[in-house]
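Example (one chain per record):
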Amino acid sequence: MVDLKVLLVEKDDCDAGTVQQIRNGLAEDIAQYHILRDATEVLKKKLVDAKPEQTSKLHLKIGLSLFFLGHPSQAIEHLREADSTLANFYLGRALLGKKDYAEALKAFDRAEKGGYTATQVQLQKVAVQRASGHVKEAQTTLAKLSEMASHSAEYHFQKGCLSSADGHFPQALEAFEQAITLDPGHTGALFELARANDYAGNDDDAVGFYERCLRHPPVHLGTLNNLGVLYEDMGRFDKAVECYRKLLAANPNDIKARLFLKDAQASLSMVISHDEEKVDSRLSQVFEIPVTDFELSVRARNCLKKLNVKTLGDLTRISEKHMMASKNFGEQSLNEIRQMLTIKNLRLGQSLDEVVPVERYRPAPSELSEQEQAIYSKPVSELQLSVRARKCMTRLNINTMGELLSKTQDELMEARNFGVTSLNEVREKLTLLGVSLRGD
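Predicted structure:
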């Protein structure tokens, strides 16, 4: 196993080989993150008393460490002070991650002029051009690097991103798969494959790809967020809590992550829910018991037959008043039914008390303007909701804007994992379209 503390604190050299060793070390064992953090603190202390000729290399080591620990803002500060070819290349990557595209291009230019491998720099420039909206320019730059197709995972990753930007999703997935064939630890390609499976509803595959992302730093914050939501869906609340804690460690001001963490912790502490599931399962079995299994009078049996009551569950959905309104059904028959249900700890009308049906409002086409009709017919996917909110739409079988707008706040909040944060997100998106939930 690579000893990261020895590598960074005791060894003087710091080059591309050092970077690869950092990546390998972090991929070997999660405990290496603690070692890297400790090494970074030691380097910071050394920097305080360092001689002028030593500061540049110390800034480089600290900057690279912070980059792989997932602190790009702090990494940028130190990499700017390092002012070396390697520092400029990773400064460009950190600035790209912060969406500072103009400065990222300047850093990559300095890296290339300083002698960093030109093709690697050009591939990063493709990413900058694409991310800043210059897709055609990015395609032109990538076309000049076609000789890298045989061996470069980054080439195929950038190709996949460009295909995705153009709406050619099958080609994009093919390119991402080729990227991880060439480099099984290519974080970008793993993330895109995870996200594609997530959107397709292939949760197990998505989790597998996201978990592989975690083993190859730097870790995309979206990986932790999306994986946390998937873990919650699977009932793996301890793992979800772990993801949200890491998100907050990287960004303590992330309000969404704080709320998600609170939800996951609450679910983790609700041990009673497992017992409730068992109770629900047993109750369902009792509801399915046929009424013919019980000894009832002929009159009572005939009345139940007329009412189309076949199971105990059917009886819990009928009130005593409704039963008594049936022809030839008297107090004696009612007492028979009550006694039969009492044996199973049930009562007439029980389910009616627990579930209040909500009449869903659907405006007729004639009630809507042409603009409103256009909005109502749009797929809900056009709202571009977060992973958690989108999954709740799926659970509630909401596919169109019309179906969403027919829902009340309370109906949405009944969905698992749909909390105040998701509700506010939906409301904000709807407000932009000039519409709102029913009852708002």
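Caption: Residues 31 and 224 are 18 Å apart (CA to CA).
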